[in-house]
């Protein structure tokens, strides 16, 4: 890329608001209706409501559709949009396919649960829509491959919703490391603290009125409805997501792939512990990755390196000349025993973002891929999937990066994809 505790409340309020990561620049200018990008939002609770607020704040955007298969979420989003733009006439839908059928929709945003990400994006590409998709990119490796193929086939634009990518700190970390100030990086340590909530026992019951549970499950295996599996806490079940690890991987791995672009992954070895309660995503997970000339570690506790203990999430780069530690908003560089927060003499070589959502809008209008584009996001996301496969199988795995398959391991390769539930293979 050349131009490059309430956990949910914390990440949304502290990590986004305090860092200014809404990234919706305000403009005094007005934009003619004919020049506006017509956007529809699919999945509009939680992060989806943030999508709505962000794009509603861009003068170049007109919101023309809202979709959620929970009628309560849809009603809440419609009221929010009405409060922001009283004259807006966006239509509401339960089934996202009705949005894709509309010829007047230019682009969609997707903030559904993880197991829906790829089908929504691929079908949007097929329908001629561009996509701003929430992280993680896909539920599994095969889906990411299919997304990239479809995006290229239909000549579409895609931006991954890694809003932190637009921040000054990640830009500067990438510049400092790429300048060679700490030398060639041989080891990277990533971590995220925090355990999942203890869920259960499962409270199986009829779905609440207004929720289309069958469609919520979609391509995932069938389960009777239980509140623990739905909405926010879905992420702690491997049928739909990958727990705290999958929730946070791309937020912090992003700065690593941007700064050094790890290549030729060959070995993955994960260990972890199943959680208490009914969820089955790992309570904690530690992973070793072997790349070409690089060792990368993920841990669920801070590593034993200077400055890590005061950061709940972070990246630690060990170079031949020094080290750099960072999180979303801070960094410390240590060279020859001297620690500093910046190296002013290193020039700014990476073009700064105009704002994450604005970058997507500009990319759509110019027909150029944005900063957090699909090809980049797929490379950065893939090791996350492979780490979870090693955890699920309980053993070390060996990877062929050219074929994107495990070596001589049918069980591991079987977990690179998943057959959709009968009737829900929509692409």
| Uncertain ranges | 1-28
Overall morphology? globular
Total E-strand runs: 16
What order do the strands of the largest sheet run in, or round the barrel if closed? Answer: 14-13-12-11-7-10-9-8-15-16
What profile does the largest beta sheet have? 10 strands, mixed
Structural class: alpha/beta
Rg (CA only): 21 Å
Q: How big a fraction of the residues is strand?
A: 15-25%
Could you give the distance between the termini? Answer: 30 Å
Helix content: 25-40%
Spell out the helices and strands N to C.
Answer: HEHEHEHEHEHEHEHHEEEEEEEHHEEH
Q: Helix tally? A: 12
Overall residue-averaged pLDDT value: 93
What does this structure look like?
The protein is α/β, with parallel strands linked by helices and 427 residues long. Helix content is 31%, strand content 19%. It has helices spanning 7-17, 47-56, 71-84, 96-101, 117-126, 141-153, 168-178, 213-217, 243-260, 356-366, 374-393, 410-414, and strands spanning 37-42, 61-67, 91-93, 107-110, 130-133, 158-160, 185-192, 267-273, 284-291, 294-299, 313-319, 322-326, 331-335, 338-340, 397-400, 405-406. Helix 9 packs across helix 11 (374-393). The longest helix is centred in the last third of the chain and has 20 residues, at 374-393. It is globular, with a radius of gyration of 21 Å. It comes from Emticicia oligotrophica (strain DSM 17448 / CIP 109782 / MTCC 6937 / GPTSA100-15). InterPro entries: Gfo/Idh/MocA-like_OxRdtase_N (IPR000683), Gfo/Idh/MocA_oxidrdct_glycsds (IPR050463), Gfo/Idh/MocA_OxRdtase_bact_C (IPR043906), NAD(P)-bd_dom_sf (IPR036291), TAT_signal (IPR006311). Residues 204-425 form the Gfo/Idh/MocA-like oxidoreductase bacterial type C-terminal domain. Residues 37-161 form the Gfo/Idh/MocA-like oxidoreductase N-terminal domain.
